[in-house]
Amino acid sequence: MTDFMLSEFPDDLAELGNVATFPAEPKIPEQAAEKRRKYRTIWISDVHLGAKGCNAEMLIDFLDNTDSETMYLVGDIIDGWRLKKKFFWPTSHNDIVWRLLKRAKRGTRIVYIPGNHDEMFRQFTGLNFGGIEIRRAAFHDTADGRRLMVLHGDEFDAVMLSHRWLAFVGDTAYHLMMTLNQWVNRARQALGMPYWSLSKAAKHKVKNAVEFIGKYEEVVARAAGERGVDGVVCGHIHTAEFRNIDGVEYWNDGDWVEGCNALVEHHDGRMEILNWPEEVAGRDAEQASEELAAETAKAAA
Ligand SMILES: [Mn+2]
C-alpha cells in the first residue's frame, strides 16, 4: 500500500472545498444581467445536453436575457441515452450547466424534475445539488391562485397504447432528423435566413403525429383533472402548446432541440409560451431599425 502523500494536495486545503473553485466565467461570456426580462416563473424542458441536436447557443441567449424567482427544469435536460452511445460534451453544454448553477447561487429557486432521458437522476429525488432541488413531480401555485401539476410527461407513454410518437420519432430516426435540421439551419444562417424547424414542419404534415399529439394532450389533462388541479405543465413530446381541455389547462413548454420554446409566468399569473428564435428575430430587427435611425439622424445633422 502506498503512503498517502499529503504533499500532493494544495497547501491551502480550504481551496478544495472553496466556492471560489467554481469556474468564475463560462467560455461563452455571460451577457450583462441588468436588462433581463423578469418573470415570476420559467419552465424549460427537453434540452438534451450531450446530444448533437441540442440548440445550446439559443438556450444560452435565452438564459442571458431572462430571469425568474422560480425555474422548473421539466426533464430531459441531459440526454443520458445519447451520452451512453457516444460521449459528446462541447463547452457550450458546460456553459449551460454553469449558468443554471449560477442562477441557483443568485437566488433563483430551481426545481429539476428528471425525464426519461435523464432518469438516472430520478434516484436522487428529494436531494439538493448546488441549490437545485430534484423532484419526481411538483405542484406550482400561480400568482392568481391556480394550482398546476408539473411533470415531465413520459409517465403517460404506457397509457398511449399505440406508441405512435415513438414510431414517428424512434430515437435514431429522430437523431438523424435533428442532424439534418442543424445542416439546414447552418445553411440558412449562412444565407442570412431565420431559424426554421424541420421536424416541426414535418410533424404538422404527418397525420398520425398530429393525432398522437392531440390524444397525448387529452390523456395528460384528464390525469391532472382527476388529481383536482387546475392545470398541468409538461414537456416530453417536443411540442409547445396551450389548450383548455374540459376545464383543465394543458401547458407544454416545448424543447430546445428544434422549437426552442419556454413557458413563462408573469408576475400577475398570466402565462405565455415563448418562441425564442422569434424573440431573437424581433430583437435583431429592432436593433437594426434603431441603428438605421441613428445613422439617418447622423446623416441629417
Ligand atoms: Mn422525454
Helix content: 25-40%
Structural domains: how many: 1
Instruction: Give the distance, in angstroms, between the N- and C-terminal Cα atoms.
Output: 82 Å
What average pLDDT do the residues reach?
Answer: 86
**In percent terms, what proportion of residues is strand?**
15-25%
Number of strands: 12
Top CATH class = Alpha Beta
Bound molecules: manganese (II) ion
Oligomer: single chain
CA-atom Rg in angstroms: 21 Å
Q: Main sheet, how many strands, which sense, barrel?
A: 7 strands, mixed
Structural category: alpha/beta
Output the strand order for the largest sheet.
4-5-3-2-1-11-12
Question: What is the architecture at the second tier of CATH?
Answer: 4-Layer Sandwich
Shape: globular
What is the CATH H-level superfamily?
Metallo-dependent phosphatases
Secondary-structure element order, as H and E? HEHEHHEEEEEHHHHEEEEEH
